[in-house]
Amino acid sequence: HVFFAAGLLQAKPEDETIKTAALLLGGKSPEELSWKDTLALGNRIELTVLWPEHTASDGGNEESICLGLGYKADDREQAQMRMLLTGDAESPQLESLLATEGDINFDIIKVGHHGSKDAVTETQLERMGCQLALISVGKDNRYGHPTPETLSALNDAEVAVYRTDLNGDIILRFERESFFVRCDTMATQAL
């Protein structure tokens, strides 16, 4: 499956990314996700669209799909572990998301826009209660990502950071009330 924010397929039918997605799908159309749509990945993981709240019109970073991942270790109603997957959304979008969602905790955040200058603030990290941040970023990229500002916010909020440019592939494993991180530069570590 390939998903785009609701409205984008109609707004940008000639977009190269949309055309490439259709090719990868063997000519089938990509699908759209709207605010509050949910996807179940088995019976333990659920993804919920938390952003954008509106119909997408241009597909810029501010309309990047943000997903809340909830992991249920057992049959309890509430997820025991939560992760925020931000795509390329940055702090202004996170601020709107947090205002709409209220007090919502995320144990883990996938930092938006490869750790750009405005990816996330210390205050947002503290409000979400993040313990771990993952940054997907190319080594020696021309943009200088992740930026010192974002790394400082993560450090000041006392969030553990794993980066693909330094740590290689990063694997998360959820178990009961905790999660484990494994990457190319270290053995499995419980957090």
Total count of strands: 12
What topology, given as strand order, has the largest sheet?
A: 3-4-5-6-7-8-9
Provide the gyration radius in Å: 17 Å
Beta-strand fraction estimate: 25-35%
Count of DSSP-assigned helices: 6
Q: Low-confidence runs (pLDDT<50, min 5 residues)?
A: none
Order of helices and strands: EHHEEEEEHEHEHEHEEE
Average pLDDT metric: 92
Helix content: 10-25%
The end-to-end distance, rounded to whole angstroms, is: 31 Å
Largest sheet: 7 strands, mixed
Judged by helices, strands and strand pairing, the structural class is alpha/beta
Q: Could you please describe the fold and organization of this structure?
A:
The chain has helices at residues 8-11, 16-24, 91-101, 122-128, 148-156, 164-167, and strands spanning 3-5, 31-33, 38-41, 45-51, 66-71, 81-85, 108-110, 132-135, 160-163, 170-175, 178-183, 186-190. The chain has 191 residues and is an alpha/beta fold. Strand 11 and strand 12 (186-190) form a beta hairpin. The protein starts with a strand and ends with a strand.
Descriptors for this entry?
191 residues; alpha/beta; seven-stranded mixed beta sheet; three-stranded antiparallel beta sheet; 12 strands
Write the layout of secondary structure elements.
Elements: E1 3-5, H1 8-11, H2 16-24, E2 31-33, E3 38-41, E4 45-51, E5 66-71, E6 81-85, H3 91-101, E7 108-110, H4 122-128, E8 132-135, H5 148-156, E9 160-163, H6 164-167, E10 170-175, E11 178-183, E12 186-190
Parallel strand pairs: 1-2, 6-7, 7-8, 8-9
Antiparallel strand pairs: 3-4, 4-5, 5-6, 10-11, 11-12
